[in-house]
Amino acid sequence: MRPTSLLVLALPALAVAQRAPAPARTADLVVVNANIYTVDDGRPRAAAMAVRDGRIAFVGSERGARAFVGPRTRVVDAAGRTIIPGMTDAHAHFLGLGAALRIVDLTGTSSYEEVIARVVARAREAPAGTWIQGRGWDQNDWGSDTRFPTHDALSRAVPDHPVILTRVDGHAVLANARAMRLAGVTAATRDPEGGRIERDAGGAPTGVFVDNAKDLVGHAVPAPSAAEVRTRALAAIDEMHRWGLTGVHDAGATRRTIELYEQLAREGKLELRTYVMIADDSASLAYYFARGPRVGVHGGRLWVRCVKLYADGALGSRGAALLAPYSDDPGNRGLLVSRPEHLEAVAERALRRGFQVATHAIGDRGNRVALDAYEQALKAVPVPDHRFRVEHAQVISPEDIPRFARLDVIPSMQAVHQTSDMYWAGTRLREEREKGAYAWRSLLATGVVIPNGSDFPVEAVNPLLSFHSALTRQDAKNWPPGGWHPEQRMTREEALRSMTIWPAYAAFQEKELGSLAAGKYADFVVLDRDIMTVAPEEILATHVVSTWVGGKPVYEAR
Hints:
Blueprint: E1 9-11, E2 29-32, E3 35-37, E4 45-46, E5 48-52, E6 55-60, H1 62-66, E7 74-77, E8 82-85, E9 87-92, H2 94-100, E10 104-105, H3 112-125, E11 132-137, H4 152-157, E12 163-167, E13 172-175, H5 177-183, E14 195-199, E15 205-211, H6 215-218, H7 226-242, E16 245-253, H8 255-266, E17 273-278, H9 282-291, E18 294-296, H10 297-300, E19 302-310, H11 340-352, E20 356-361, H12 364-380, E21 389-392, H13 401-406, E22 410-412, H14 415-434, H15 440-444, H16 463-472, H17 492-497, H18 501-506, E23 524-527, E24 544-549, E25 552-556
Helix pairs in contact: 2-7, 11-12, 14-16
């Protein structure tokens, strides 16, 4: 999807003789002739706004905004275009996106043969013996047989390069024979706790490693250089801006990664409101628990006040922990990748040190384990405004849905996961369990908010995909008619809030971000059509005209 040409025009400052505002009231930027959805209950709609020192000074009428025009004010005519608050992806993988932009892209492959062909093409260009990495395969898209592939065909096609290919959800990898040899993996290698090696009838690894077993091969992959990681980060920022994102909740970053963000922020190159969840490794946790939360440092570019934990795996790789076996894999109830007592212990430590906790939980058993751990931690350390989160919350037992509101836990969900998974989710769960799957309306009815995201690079970066999914429960081709379990849809207003003010609330940022109101950061997006009124099937034809962070353009379509 290519954005349309830029339609926002800078106009010369109006004559000072026509305005005589006090100099203290002049703005750096005034936007007029706009269709603004503020997501501010005090003024839901507006025609203009003024920005000073990176923050909004005024939102309202064009007459009111023009009072802020001075000799150095940039005046922008929005040409009637729609403006919304800058969108925030409430669950994504910042550096994962940067890496995905530079490795073999396997998203959208419709067969194992196509996956192999893309790897072979990269192998022709790669120096002999170097590792080839890719991401995005999904065996559920390859036809009626949804079993995992085996390495044999890949190993025959690419025998001289070690190859490791990450599944679309990041919860499984496929390795070829050379990669497994270099990693020292054999039939004698045991499954780690919280992980599974797929094996043939004789016990030999077939090439697929699920959840905690991924590291058995991953440890052998050379770490990228600091320069490469920096390049990936900058590429990811540019890509997010292109789709109208001004903020991201980075779901699991090590100390090394966070220090890179700090460096970029000091250099003025982190033009993104970055809310970091610290990865669950003992060294990173010890360092940041001793240091304490970092809140809106570097001009509101960086927050470090959350810990990312994992309860289970993913539904697509049958690693999500279920209360009853998978309908299409009897005997398999998924994987708990962390011990429940570990979740509880880290949650208690976080509460004592002023940190939030966000736990990945997809299956109904995974969600129950996470909620149980939170409940026990909150009994031990009863912090009123903790805003603990469950990331994904995809399949929830009906009896656990009210517990989110009761415990003040935020279900951080990705609407686009529903429309990616709906083709095969029923075969994993069957009809009864589907009632608690991607159950946005059931959760909203209890009084919670649902921050929305994409989990990129698991899904595409474009946040309007999640907006469309939340509203329609249909895929990009508007299938199925009426939507999958349409009773769980969001309204347009809820869908917009789920990408703006609700992520801000989920990150303790609602006084700074998430709506266009005086005093908040001037982060906004100009769109070429009105997503709040166009027909649902036209939403995904919308293009970002420009993206602004702190009142400055960081992306302009050409």
